[in-house]
Structure prediction request, 235 residues.
Amino acid sequence: MFFIFDVETIPDFEFLRRVLNQPDVGEEELLLQASEELTRNNSGFLPPMYHRMVSWAGLWVENNGKPVQKVAWNGEDEREGLESIFDTLLTYKDFGLVHHNGRGFDLPLLTYRSMKHNMQMPMRLNHYDIRYRFSKENIDLMDEFSNYGASSYPKLKHLGYLIDVPFKQTAEGNEVLAMYREGKLPEIEHYCYEDVMATYIVWLRMKYTVGDIPLDIFSNLNERALSKLKEIQAG
Prediction:
């Protein structure tokens, strides 16, 4: 069984104020300073340590690609959100993971935030099957398509362009903070679920491309997935 998931976050402003020793500056100025001092990339996107979770969404799928159950959470209480995703992961003993940049962001984020709240994560997340760099139980699409960094890392939206499927129609990642400030937590969860479905569709196409599933099974699952994606995008 695989868990395809995505996490949505906003900057942890309280933590940033302590790290930068800037208790009184406004949030926008704080973000500007943080992007200059704490990032290692050209985008200015903060590393996972400096974020807090406001939503997550996941889809349980069987090894053959058949979807089983959708689960999600959004809210202000981050500890509640962590408890929710960890309880979900305890549904199956030997689950695998599928994500896009989960190794680089989502999984480190879960570790950092668990430490902050003094929580214990499911033991499976520290198992060799998950931690091993080239694991087939912890599938990061960025690694799969770049041959583990030998080539360039693809954006999820561009993978959608490649296979003629429109992704990210409800929002973009850089819009999450603005949505949060407007109190649109359910909309953030909805956007998160679209990313999960996009990840699922790309993973499904990849599994067919490399010969892991036959054409008849792929065609059926892909048609259903595309229909679900259109439903999500329609709101």
Notes: The radius of gyration is 18 Å. The beta strands are 2-11, 51-61, 67-74, 96-99, 138-140. Residues 1 and 96 are 6 Å apart (CA to CA). The chain has a mean pLDDT of 93.
